[in-house]
Design a protein that fits this description.
By secondary structure, the chain is an alpha/beta fold. 26% of the residues lie in helices and 27% in strands. Helix 3 links the parallel strand 4 and strand 5. Helix 1 (9-24) crosses helix 2. The relative contact order is 0.20.
Length: 184
């Protein structure tokens, strides 16, 4: 596989700081704001943003964790047994302004599942979506409110968001399989 760096660790940190500012910017009082990270990488990104809000902007914002496995429209069509992860939302969603956080926006199906899952926990006042990378190829009418990087990709390519908590380093990469038409 060929792998090319799109965003360095320093650039990722700047992007997370920008997200933190953008999250609270529309509100005079951010007490109704809450962040929910989508399993798996979105959780770590959301935690970092929440930590920046607390340490640099003195904004204490609650954080939740969401697994959308059972809400996916392809749940029953996958061959293998899905790996279900933790969902933990330790606050009431009613009338909250929620920011969902994930690493990559692709078809829009995961975001649709996340919104459906959230509605089963309560009725937020608003739901916004934040992703580190929007790679295109939407199958549903979904867009991100906050985007770190837009990368037009081929369907054969992958976007990989590396996080030091999981991968030992930070960086965003585009990965081209060795047998794809672009390499022949």
């Amino acid at each position: 596989m060929n792998q090319a760096l799109l965003l360095s660790a320093d650039d990722m940190n700047r992007t997370l700081r920008r997200f933190a500012h953008q999250f609270i910017e529309p509100y005079e009082n951010h007490t109704n704001l809450a962040i929910i990270g989508m399993q798996t990488r979105g959780v770590y990104i959301a935690r970092r943003i929440r930590d920046i809000l607390a340490s640099e902007l003195s904004a204490e914002v609650p954080l939740g964790v969401l697994d959308v496995t059972f809400y996916r429209d392809d749940f029953r069509t996958k061959m293998k047994m899905p790996e279900v992860k933790v969902t933990e939302i330790p606050f009431d969603l009613d009338q909250k302004d929620i920011v969902l956080v994930d690493d990559v926006l692709y078809t829009g199906r995961t975001v649709r599942a996340a919104m459906e899952a959230l509605m089963s926990f309560g009725r937020p006042r608003s739901i916004k979506f934040c992703c580190m990378v929007d790679r295109g190829h939407r199958e549903l009418p979904v867009s991100a409110d906050y985007v770190g990087l837009q990368v037009p990709t081929h369907k054969s390519e992958e976007i990989r968001v590396h996080l030091h908590e999981l991968d030992g380093n930070d960086g965003i990469y585009v990965v081209q399989p060795d047998d794809s038409p672009a390499n022949t």
